[in-house]
Design brief:
single chain, 480 residues, two-stranded antiparallel sheet, 20 helices, binds S-adenosylmethionine
Length: 480
């Protein structure tokens, strides 16, 4: 039976409830009056203490997803954009993945790291190699990483992951520093989540891959990841272990997108119902070509247009959740996705173990092929050309604004007052330390405009002064 408050996977992600919701949505998908009501319900409302958004339930959001009235779909995209602007403004948070090890004991059929793949090069970074990778990432200007590893209790035990996190935070190269390490490793125990929390991680990210239990078991035929309940209940254990920012995701292409969409929103409702705080982020990866992997063998691939619609509908349903898109997607798709809901993107990613220290993008230990292969400077330049402010800020996490404290600020729109100045400051810092002359030029023009036409020389002077004052004050952590 469906019960969002239950701690049992099959009760909070309930198969019958998903099917019934989809049937109900199918029946109502072209009911214009209902769609108007839903759009009105989801619209941001201004009240005395800020802007609020109600979001939509999984059933309601499914109606929008399935709707095929062209004018209503246009309204859906406009509303998604409006919600995004209300809570995230024009800021886009930047990050990069860092692959630590591709040793893995699982049998995931879509992933080249699966145990039976004997021809992929297996690598695990030493601490000296972690330091070299981090130095290369800092030299690009990155401040926020997502660490990635296969599941292998012998090669990649939790102690190894913790040691890598320590190394990452300890590297201070030139003006660089990694200020937030998010972690994407396999489902683990409460005790291990507590250790990750104590190591100072940001978000714990775990993709569900698919919410469809039967498919999940077929797609994960062997290894610890085969256990659907253990995987699906991981976020509850992470929260029990004290991690209050968790990131959900589905690997689109494996199962029917509609099913995944409803499952994902039910998972978000469950976290809110049990822990009082929904997911911090939702990622939307799609299956990609990789060594030993042909994405066409999975029959549930979705078109770019449908993919963008999914993002818009997630944005409307869970307005306070950040949304992440990776370099799995092309520049063109990322551009559309940014308009309708994405708030965080990776740049200059290498998905191989040890890839950042190589001149050319290596393929031998790569997890998937990246579509967007631009440098970070090119990505930053491109974002600013479109009027977005690339943000390297990590202040919320560093100031303890995580979990419900972050959500409380986000839910009344006040987060803008923290995020916007910090985004501008960290962008100035990036422009000063890492940008090419052209990127610097367009960056300061954008900041000048953002600050109400304060001349750019003055902005630069103020920013440089502030940044060097903060650095000179020798606080361990900058406040952005
Ligand atoms: N081993 C951890 C786990 O099991 O959750 C970490 C995951 S892995 C390093 C990161 C994610 O990459 C996976 O959760 C999966 O969704 C995604 N992935 C795997 N193979 C992929 C492929 N061929 N194309 C795109 N994404 C893929």
């Amino acid at each position: 039976m469906y019960n969002p408050k239950s701690l049992k996977a099959e009760e909070f992600i309930n198969h019958e409830e998903i099917l019934e919701s989809l049937e109900w949505a199918e029946q109502h998908k072209n009911d214009a009056a209902l769609i108007d009501q839903l759009l009105e319900k989801a619209r941001p409302k201004r009240t005395a203490d800020g802007i609020h958004c109600e979001g939509l339930t999984h059933r309601e959001a499914a109606v929008l997803l399935l709707c095929d009235i062209p004018e209503k779909n246009e309204e859906i995209y406009r509303l998604a954009e409006e919600i995004k602007l209300a809570f995230y403004g024009n800021r886009i948070v930047m990050f990069a993945p860092l692959y630590l090890s591709n040793y893995c004991v699982n049998g995931c059929v879509y992933c080249p790291y699966h145990m039976k793949n004997k021809h992929i090069a297996r690598k695990k970074l030493t601490q000296a190699e972690v330091a070299a990778e981090v130095t290369a990432l800092q030299d690009m200007g990155h401040k926020r990483l997502a660490i990635e590893a296969g599941e292998d209790p012998v090669n990649n035990p939790i102690e190894y992951i913790l040691e890598c996190i320590d190394t990452i935070y300890s590297i201070k190269h030139k003006n660089g520093a990694i200020r937030r390490v998010n972690v994407n490793i396999a489902a683990t125990t409460v005790e291990n989540y507590r250790k990750l929390k104590d190591a100072g991680i940001g978000t714990y990210i775990l993709f569900q891959e698919t919410y469809h239990k039967e498919s999940y078991e077929k797609l994960h035929p062997t290894g610890p990841k085969h256990d659907y309940a253990y995987h699906t209940e991981a976020m509850d254990r992470a929260m029990e272990g004290g991690i209050d920012d968790v990131g959900l995701g589905v690997l689109f292409g494996l199962e029917l997108y509609k099913y995944e969409f409803v499952g994902l929103l039910m998972h978000a409702e469950h976290l809110e119902a049990v822990h009082g705080v929904g997911p911090h982020t939702i990622s939307v990866p799609r299956v990609k070509k990789a060594d030993d992997i042909d994405p066409d063998v999975f029959d549930n691939g979705i078109s770019d247009d449908l993919f963008v619609k999914l993002i818009a509908c997630i944005r409307i349903a869970v307005p306070y959740t950040g949304m992440i898109i990776s370099t799995r997607e092309s520049q063109e798709v990322r551009e559309k996705a940014l308009q309708v809901g994405i708030s965080q993107i990776s740049g200059a990613s290498r998905t191989s173990v040890g890839g950042y220290t190589e001149e050319e993008r290596p393929h031998d230990s790569e997890q998937f092929d990246v579509s967007d292969q631009r440098t970070l400077d090119e990505v930053v330049h491109w974002l600013m050309d479109m009027g977005f402010i690339p943000s390297f800020c990590t202040a919320c996490y560093r100031e303890g604004r995580t979990g419900d404290r972050f959500m409380a600020l986000c839910k009344n729109g006040q987060i803008q007052n923290c995020c916007h100045p910090n985004a501008l400051m960290t962008l100035c810092e990036y422009l000063e330390d890492y940008a090419s002359p052209e990127t610097k030029e367009i960056g300061y023009r954008l900041i000048e405009k953002e600050l109400g036409n304060i001349p750019k020389e003055k902005v630069r002077a103020i920013a440089s002064q502030n940044i060097s004052d903060i650095k000179a004050s020798n606080r361990r952590d900058f406040r952005f």
